[in-house]
Amino acid sequence: MRHLFIVPLGVALLVTVAGCDRMRDNNVDRKIKDVNVVDETNLNDVMLTVADPNEAVRYFQRALANDPGRIDLMRGLGISLIRAKRPAEAVTAWTKVTNHKDATNDDRVELADALIRAGQWDRAAEALNGIPPTHETFKRYRLEAMIADSKEDWKKADAFYETAIGLTTTPATTLNNWGYSKLTRGDFKGAESLFTQAIRQDESLFTAKNNLVLARGAQGIYTVPVLPMTQTERAQLLHTAGLAAIKRGDVEMGKALFREAIDTHPQHFEEASRSLKALEQNVTN
Questions:
Q1: Which of 253, 179, 255, 182 is nearest to 221 (CA)?
Q2: Domains identified in the chain, total number
Q3: Domain shared by 213 and 257, yes or no
Q4: Model confidence, pTM
Q5: 60 falls within a domain
Q6: Euclidean distance between CA atoms 230 and 277, whole angstroms
Q7: Which domain holds residue 214?
Q8: Looking at residue 194, which CATH number applies to its domain?
Q9: Repeats (TPR): which ranges (predicted)?
Q10: Per-residue pLDDT of the chain (285 residues; tens, 9 = 90+)
Q11: Alpha-carbon distance 162 to 149, whole Å?
């Protein structure tokens, strides 16, 4: 009798231990899976920000091959293709995202952005027109402004630019774009004001500084305004002012500005030297 009692008890203990092992294994597997998800999320973020754009493209392509249909990976591929300056492929990637059942209006805005970068302005306009007007975001209105610009619908462009600027805390590049729009229309005073505002928002934005010199040069004002700039930047801006002077027919002023640019640059300023040489040869001939 004693032996009959001990054997079932031993079996029961073995079953209990096996059950505990299985529970431990399940817990370990679940923890490992959770860690992998966290690690993958962190890696995705790294790929979208600091990684080489083309390496990020390859990463998301591999990830999608292993797990097709995951919209976060599809978005990552689209973003990476834009960063890698591969807009035609980005259009394909974002089109697939917008066809996904979990696509959002933000995804449709990203498709419009990719289409603009690929030069497909009409399709971009269609993509934005398909988004409800209640979806009011900075990027949506910035793209709307760019499309209005392309159609030379200045009234709409100004309205969209103004709305976009009111929806962001970093409006410098949009102010610069708006200023360039004014510059192409021949509204040099308006452009000058917008470029000045852009620089006030971001003192490192050299494009706005260069555009400001162009806007002033178009008005016959060739002095470089007082701006935060390096010596190299000042030389480049003097060269831009010289080009603006030549465009207006002020040849002697252009030559003087090229010489000043060459003297100002801390190293050899090849571009300004070529401009001056070409000008002098042309005058001689």
A1: 253
A2: 2
A3: no
A4: 0.81
A5: no
A6: 25
A7: 136-223
A8: 1.25.40.10
A9: 235-268
A10: 444 444 454 444 444 444 555 545 454 444 434 434 445 667 888 888 877 999 999 999 999 999 999 999 999 999 999 999 999 999 999 999 999 999 999 999 999 999 999 999 999 999 999 999 999 999 999 999 999 999 999 999 999 999 999 999 999 999 999 999 999 999 999 999 999 999 999 999 999 999 999 999 999 999 999 999 999 999 999 999 999 999 999 999 999 999 999 999 999 999 999 999 988 887 555
A11: 13
